[in-house]
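Database export, one record per block. Field names are fixed; values are copied verbatim from the stored entry.
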Amino acid sequence: MNKQLELICMSRHLIAWVIQTKVVRVQHHYSRKLDTKRKQLQGVQQLFQTFASQIEKNLDVEDDEDRGTYRSSRDSKRDRKSKGHHSHSGLQKGAPGTVSLPDI
């Protein structure tokens, strides 16, 4: 009877160890998968930020060329704010240099 209890105890420990190793393996698998997705998302966010900054630079250069002089984007943004334009950057409907799509 004592030998039987010892085997039951050992089998419980073995089963617990097997379950724990499976859990750890699955956690590592999904952690790597999640990290890969995070890095991919950060890359896409960086692409959008770069794209947006390039558009802003191009718009600032076009605004400066329309005025006939070239100034830094900081100066042109300050001029826009002082002239009563909205403080947020981006395109606005009906603003000079924009084209709106026709209503359908």
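Remark 1: The helical segments are 2-67, 73-82.
Remark 2: Residues 81 and 88 are 9 Å apart (CA to CA).
End of record.
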